[in-house]
């Protein structure tokens, strides 16, 4: 960088989205980022929006009234879904990045398994859990 | 603290947020499911309900701690995303300082509002 040379294989902003031929986990990590980014931006807006509780009941109900539309009901579910994905996938990431969920040690036999492959059953288990939570909360939003 | 420690703190705050944010989402959004469990159902964002939580000390502490952890975790994450562009040393420092300022400003604002709603 210091020399200002063109850096080989440097993707820059494209690298945020492009996962190339890496596995499913790489795409899940992209989603982890996307949902994380969405949540922090939402948090900042939410902080402002909820500050209207200081202005008394009329103002508060007025602000809440603005959100009383189908579009916002859908957006509310999107935030819920982002949270569910980010929290559960995040739990998996913490466990896996710290080196757990690798299974019992085995003798390495060719073709060798990567840690990603060994952690894959855990990924699927979390995946199922995410889907269950998404469905249950969707049910709650619909009734 | 070294970089690895800040990262570890992001993971730890993430784990704590599962509990705090999980509770927050259930209380505010999942009214039907709370109803099944026989717990106070309906109208979590009605003014009376909001102010009832605002006037309680446990909820006030809950919100302040929750805010601090979520801001740390989220803004540190945002920093990771931006620094992945491998900026120059100076630019990285500028990004870090700006995000720290955003964090402190947002925390002060949120704590001020929470405290006003509690004491006022
Ligand atoms: C609900 C509990 C949560 C858990 C378990 C969790 C966990 C995680 C984990 C494990 C990562 C990846 C870190 C890494 O591998 O380096 C991550 C990234 C991120 N999280 Fe969370 N998180 C949670 C809530 C939140 C919230 C509430 C926000 C926003 C305020 C947020 C914003 C972010 C952002 C922006 C990233 C991207 C960082 C990156 O790409 O390295 N997270 N989270």
Description of the structure:
The complex is a heterodimer of chains A (143) and B (120). Chain A has 143 residues and is an all-alpha fold. Chain A has a domain at 24-36 and 69-142. Helices cover 68% and strands 0% of the residues of chain A. Chain A has five helices and no strands. In chain A, helix 2 crosses helix 4 (70-97) and helix 4 (70-97) runs antiparallel to helix 5 (115-142). Chain A starts with 13 loop residues before the first helix and ends with a helix. The mean pLDDT of chain A is 92. Chain B is mainly α. Chain B has a single domain (2-119), classed as 3 helical TM bundles of succinate and fumarate reductases (Up-down Bundle), CATH 1.20.1300. Chain B has five helices and no strands. Chain B has helices at 3-29, 31-36, 47-54, 57-83, 89-119. The longest helix of chain B has 31 residues, at 89-119. The chains are: A mainly alpha (143), B mainly alpha (120). Chain A binds chain B through residues 1-2, 10, 12-13, 15-16, 33, 36-37, 39-40, 43-44, 47, 50-51, 53-54, 57, 60-61, 64, 76, 80, 83, 87, 90-91, 93-94, 97-98, 136-137, 139-141, 143, and chain B through 11, 14-15, 17-18, 21-22, 25, 29-33, 45, 47, 50-51, 54, 67, 70-71, 74-75, 77-78, 81, 84-88, 102, 106, 109-110, 113, 116-117, 120. Protoporphyrin IX containing FE sits between chains A (32-33, 36-37, 39-40, 43, 86-87, 90-91, 93-94, 97) and B (10-11, 14-15, 17-18, 21, 70, 73-74, 77-78, 80-81).
Question: Would you summarize the structure shown here?
Answer:
Chain A is mainly alpha-helical and 143 residues long.
């Amino acid at each position: 960088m210091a020399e200002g040379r063109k850096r080989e294989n440097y993707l820059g902003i494209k690298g945020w989205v492009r996962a190339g031929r890496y596995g499913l986990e790489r795409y899940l990590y992209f989603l982890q980022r996307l949902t994380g980014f969405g949540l922090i931006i939402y948090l900042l807006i939410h902080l402002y929006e909820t500050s209207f509780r200081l202005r008394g009941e009329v103002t508060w109900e007025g602000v809440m009234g603005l959100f009383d539309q189908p579009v916002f009901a859908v957006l509310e579910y999107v935030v819920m879904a982002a949270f569910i994905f980010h929290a559960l996938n995040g739990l998996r990431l913490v466990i896996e990045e710290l080196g757990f969920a690798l299974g019992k040690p085995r003798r390495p036999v060719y073709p060798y398994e990567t840690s990603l492959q060994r952690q894959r059953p855990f990924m699927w288990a979390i995946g199922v859990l995410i889907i269950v939570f998404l469905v249950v909360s969707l049910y709650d939003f619909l009734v | 603290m070294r970089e690895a420690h800040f990262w570890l703190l992001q993971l730890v705050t993430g784990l704590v947020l599962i509990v705090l944010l999980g509770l927050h989402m259930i209380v505010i959004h999942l009214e039907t499911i709370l109803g099944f469990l026989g717990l106070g159902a309906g109208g979590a964002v009605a003014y009376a309900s909001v102010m009832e939580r605002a006037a309680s000390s446990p909820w006030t502490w809950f919100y302040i701690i929750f805010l601090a952890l979520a801001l740390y975790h989220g803004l540190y994450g945002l920093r990771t995303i931006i620094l992945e562009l491998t900026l120059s040393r100076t630019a990285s420092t500028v990004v870090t300082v700006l995000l720290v300022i955003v964090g402190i400003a947002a925390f002060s604002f949120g704590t001020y509002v929470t405290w006003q709603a509690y004491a006022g």
